[in-house]
Amino acid sequence: MIRRRVILAGLLLCATLTVLSADAVSWYRQGLRAFERGDSESVRQSLGYFRRAVEENPYYFRAWRSLGLAYHRLGYYRLARPALEKALEQQPDHIEASLAYAETLIALGNSTDSRTQIDKVLHVQPRNVQALYVDALWWYHSRRSDLALERIRSVHALAPHHVPAWLLRGSIMTAASQWHAAEEAYRQAVRSQPHSAEARYGLGRYLFDRGRWREAIEPLRQALDLDRELHKALEPWGRCQFL
User: Fold this and answer.
1) pLDDT tier at 40 (50, 70, 90 boundaries)?
2) Shortest CA distance to 82 belongs to which of 56, 54, 40?
3) 242, 213 in Cβ contact below 8 A?
4) What is the pLDDT of residues 183-224, one digit of tens each?
5) How far is Cα 217 from Cα 239, in angstroms, rounded to an integer?
6) Which terminus of the chain is more solvent-facing, meaning fewer CB atoms within 10 Å of its CB: N or C?
């Protein structure tokens, strides 16, 4: 009798876990469809689905990874960090999660742990474009723009249309008051991916900060047309309209 009860309890537990797992997969797939649309509004919508997936299955690696990547994409770094840590607890060597975690730590000012993550990836994939870019970002935040530019050149040797690297180069050139080189970097970002809201915003913001308001209006408008949730473009675009 006791044995039969144990078997029945085990079967009931397995059935419950199967239902939970099926629900978690369903939530995850809905979140993934929203996330892959790419615009900020869709990525924000994906958060609810991914959160439900990890609530149903706290050990669901893909859901934790995607939740962390979605927070990371939106710049919610304090929320991205624990989600990515949950994912990396299960798969410590996952490349995409490791690099997103490294970039998150850079944004939060944790240079030591981010360096560890970057080196871990570069050790196994020395020509990984995203790893080289995050490495450039690390050097930039460490106030070594010379080494950051060297890494950016490595990125563009492998991926000439890598928009974040062009934008980072634009920021470095702007800080060095090399205006022509900075503008060319921002324009190259737009040429590389004409449908990138971030590229359009980068160019518009640069022109706005340089006092070239009439020229800034169009790229800022285009950025908002491409991603209506790109709130950081609203303030300079509104001021350009007023001026």
Assistant:
1) confident
2) 54
3) no
4) 999 999 999 999 999 999 999 999 999 999 999 999 999 999
5) 9
6) N
Question: CA gyration radius for the chain?
Answer: 22
User: From the centroid of its chain, how far is CA 91?
Assistant: 19
Contact 132/161 with Cβ under 8 angstroms?
Answer: no
Q: Which two tokens stand for residue 97?
A: 């999660």
Residue labelled with tokens 């928009």:
163
201-to-1, 5, 61, 231 alpha-carbon distances in Å: 70, 64, 33, 10
Q: Quote the CA–CA distance of 88 and 167 in Å, as a whole number.
A: 29
Determine the Cα–Cα distance for residues 103 and 111; give it in Å rounded to an integer.
10
Distances (CA, A) of 165 to 25, 66, 94, 150: 34, 23, 22, 11
Q: pTM, whole model, 2 decimals?
A: 0.85
CB of 145 closer than 8 Å to CB of 139: yes
**CA 52/CA 26 separation, integer angstroms:** 10
Cβ(167)–Cβ(198) below 8 Å:
yes
AA letter at 169: R
Rounded to the nearest 5°, which phi and psi values hold at 227?
-150, 95
Give the residue from 127, 130, 111, 123 showing the smallest Cα distance to 69.
Answer: 130
In contact, 170 and 206? CB cutoff 8 Å: yes
- Pull the structure tokens for residue 135: 């490495």
User: Can you tell me the distance from the alpha carbon of 202 to that of 182, in angstroms, rounded to the nearest whole number?
Assistant: 11
